[in-house]
Specification:
This is ATP-NAD kinase. This protein is α+β, with helices and mostly antiparallel strands. The chain folds into 2 domains: about 180 residues, Probable inorganic polyphosphate/atp-NAD kinase, domain 1 (Rossmann fold); about 170 residues, Probable inorganic polyphosphate/atp-NAD kinase, domain 2 (Tumour Suppressor Smad4, Sandwich), CATH 2.60.200.30. It is built from 9 helices and 24 strands. The strands form 3 sheets. Strands 10, 11, 12, 13, 14, 15, 16, 17, 18, 19, 20, 21 and 22 form a 13-stranded antiparallel β-sheet that branches. The chain has a 6-stranded parallel β-sheet with strand order 1-6-5-4-7-8, sandwiched between helices. A 5-stranded antiparallel β-sheet has the order 23-2-3-9-24, covered by helices on one side. Strand 7, helix 4 and strand 8 form a beta-alpha-beta unit. The longest helix has 17 residues. It is globular and about 65 Å long. The chain starts with 20 loop residues before the first strand and ends in a 12-residue tail after the last helix.
Length: about 450
Amino acid sequence: MRVRPFSAQRAFSRTARRHEVIELPRAGALPDRSPSTYQATRQNDLLGLHWRSPLRTVLLMKKEEAPQVTNSLIEFAYHVQTTYPDVNLVFEPSVARSVHEQLPSPIYALPTQKREAEQVLHDNVDLITTLGGDGTILHAAGLYANSPRVPPILAFSMGTLGFLGEWKFAEYKRAFREVYMSGASATVEQTLGSRGTEDITRVADDPWASLRGKFMGTDRHARILLRHRLKVSVHTPASFSSSAPSSVAKKPILTGKHPSLATAQTLARGNPKLPPSPLYALNEIILHRGRAPHLTQIGISVNGRHLTDAIADGLIVATPTGSTAYSLSSGGCIVHPLVPSLILTPISPRSLSFRPLILPANAEVMLRVAETNRSEGVDVSIDGMRMEEPLGRGGEVRITGEDVGLRALGRGEKDTNLGGVPSIVRGANGVSRGEDHWVGGLNGLLKFNYPFGEGV
């Protein structure tokens, strides 16, 4: 398909219905969220995705300031609108203004108001599709930072590294078909060739009936890697006073500016309000000295027991997904995303014996800025969002791993209330267990244990 070159000068069209941008919220504009379930598979590591009815709403997100990615986004959206006409496409407002004139059907723009946008995200969006790098995926996950349930994410790697992006864009038709038809019943394929009136009625009542020829079989479904998140709350000394409830946590103003993570995980990328705590982080929590010339002094407790007082540039608490990010650059170990754990990594510690730790995912970690800390505060960032105001002496960050509910999911059983971030990985169910996408990424992208020298 050929698309017209991207132009950032396009505005909302008011003359043609086909180019319309529908600004949400609008009563009844989008259907309710289609229930999805996750089933344990024979491999007992990845899950299978099952839709009870066809998905109806997809949130499309892309890398910023990348014209080639914009053209790919238009191509993907055109394919979805022409091949799956019942699917509604939702974009961030600025993206919707840029692409709507090149699409054959109306599209939707997320509300600019945070509360209204959250309602759309939680009540209507069935699937998130990202085109970009790891920062785009983190931004998408950040939209659900205060939600225990995240829709499946279909990520196309079009960024610099793309360690989290699972699919190549050239595979977009196959990828979306695999996701859309995942869990579809066999009724359509079994009855479309029949001529009986009863069979025709059965087909008409089947929600998948309009997609003849796309059925993949009841044993073929999209594979889900459930990425664990961290559950975090930030508490100031005022939270512990007798005049304030102990459960009150700081709701800091955030900015996307961070020395190593430049992507702001906010809904409207100029509105850096943190959701009410507790909130969830896909990558990491970072406490850092910031511009202060002095090392930080942070007390570390695990499950209510004092572990040590860290004197370092800072501390990182990362998920297995975040173990290949800032934690890895700071000397932390690489952890497979299926290992339920959290990683505690010091940043340039004063003591040479302070090494990274791997803790159980259900461990409760408390980081407390010491009263003897030489600077007045410590910078805190959550998945790239930094508190505008440093956390002062006596302030605490409380962290634990998210309970994703996998332990209650027996083999062959299904569940709709799993936590974590469901990431759709390549390949249908039943492939060899040795085809581990994570191992491929470790070797192909991080060049794990590659020797130095030319020609390698």
